[in-house]
Amino acid sequence: MEILISVLSTLANILVAGVVLYTSTKFLGCSIPYVYALPAYQAFGLAFCLVSVYNVVLYPMLLDPLRVFPRVVAPDIRVLLPVTDAPRGESALRWVKQHPSADAIRISTPVGSVLTAVSPRALRDALATNQNDYEKPLSGRNFLARTLGWGLILSEGATHDRQRKHLTSSFRIQNIRGLHELMLSKTRIMMQEMEKQCTLTGKCEMNSWGSKVTLDIIGNSLMYKDFDALRTEHQPVNEAFEELTAVSPDTTIHYLLSFVLPGFILSRLPTATNRLVDRNSQVIINACAEGLDAAIADNKVVQGHGSKQQRGSEILQSILSDSQTTRTEIIDQMRTFLGAGHETTATSIAWATHILTLPDYQHYQTRLRAELDATGFHTAISDPQVLEKLPWLNAICEETLRLYPPVTTTGRIAIRDTTIAGARVPKGTLVVLFPWAVNRNPRYWGGLDSERFVPERWLDTRPDGSVRLNKHGGAESNFCELTFLHGNRGCIGRDFSKAELRVILASFFGQFEVARLPGDDLVAEPVGSLTIKPKGGLFVKLRRVRDG
Ligand code: HEM
């Protein structure tokens, strides 16, 4: 086996030499005597054939330790990327349906094979049991670090463990409940502004309002910085994120290039994407630096261990309590939280509205209002603990997050030999994870109903007819859902975002009857880089049914 690999790598080298010789004679005008060029071309041809036979036939059929898993072919590698202009999720879901009993599926692409884990058993291995055998691919991390900084999302190993340990406590439910007033007051401003816009223009666009309200909430929770995006027409940080998350073929090409070019070369190419990333990242860095300085100057937070903190400053204080952290790292961590804690929840607000305004599902708006009425609308929205227990509200949030996971694709690379569902996974294997496909897998989510919006699956009916929320949606394991992932790299902001979603949806649908514009009753296509939004935006009109 090893001899075979060395022979093939030698041939691969000859192949590269052949290409160099060919290009130098053809394009650079070097005159290489024919007697040398001919054998080089022949070697090139032979090496090319052998490498192809090895990649296409020999390795996948006889040598690949992952050949116990079924194989599919992906001619367009863009469908495997988290940053892409390609349609999202659907190819992976098709593969999952083609191989319903598979634990994992091998995906052959023109540039090599990758693996995707699909069953709860395989996902548990990749994300929990053997989680320390994986890292996020360096090329993708280098690309994203320019926007998000080297914070919790992109750090690895001991640095990640240290950062996660310091940050975990600020995401406890008690601390999140402490942010309820802020979340509610920002939601109220959102609704006032939306109502004004609707009166003036007859419509409002949900993606952009979701983005503004979540930016204002995370800005205030993270660093006492009120971006006031909700009342500012051109808020620079909001616009910076909008541009950074927009999809374009240019961004996809850049992301693909990050696999072959070192970061310091790629980031210096004079391209439109580089200019856009540099300009917008600087806007975000400056905002974080200003927020940090203001919070320290106002004594809201103090660097170092054991320092007193004011209510609501927990996230920034926990970043500062890590005594090993430099100012650049603090700002990187703030960029991470601004990015991660903003567009993700914003898209969930848009998707929930998208679903609840479709003809088949509109009646869930009425169901939700009835639940809020029965509890007492004002009692419910002013108390986070009441909202946490409302069955229909929570079931609608859970089902939206299942059906439209904002992050549809992510990846891990095995840093040592490991196993998935009993099969050996060699070091260097790229494991791509598709929350979109896993969350809609008919095998675990009720066959034909798996792609339908069925909030009832999150509810259990008691003998007295009352309903109670369950934690699994009827699936056999929580690894059947990947919206927030699992394990030590799962989303630290999971409870934060659920609290936000609850208060925003309860206030919004509790006070407005929300409808699409005439003629628009279609299921929108999900598009977006990193997170998915309804294509073309989601335009709605509002009719007030209750005073706030
Ligand atoms: C609906 C809302 C959200 C969804 C669906 C979501 C989803 C995810 C996913 C899938 C990951 C793992 C990414 C990967 O490993 O490739 C992640 C990680 C992370 N999320 Fe979220 N997220 C949401 C909201 C938030 C919020 C509100 C915050 C902060 C306030 C946040 C902060 C983070 C951080 C810091 C990480 C990195 C965790 C680590 O690696 O230790 N997220 N999120």
In short:
With 548 residues, this protein is α+β, with helices and mostly antiparallel strands. The protein contains 22 helices and 15 strands.
Task: Give a description of the structure.
The protein is α+β, with helices and mostly antiparallel strands. The protein has two domains: 1-63, no CATH class; 144-544, Cytochrome p450, CATH 1.10.630.10. Helix content is 52%, strand content 10%. The strands form five sheets. It has a six-stranded mixed beta sheet. Strands 5-15-12 form a three-stranded antiparallel beta sheet. It has a two-stranded antiparallel ribbon with strand order 7-8. Helix 17 (363-375) packs across helix 22 (494-511). It is globular and about 90 Å long. The N and C termini lie far apart (71 Å). The relative contact order is 0.14. The mean pLDDT is 89. The structure holds protoporphyrin IX containing FE.
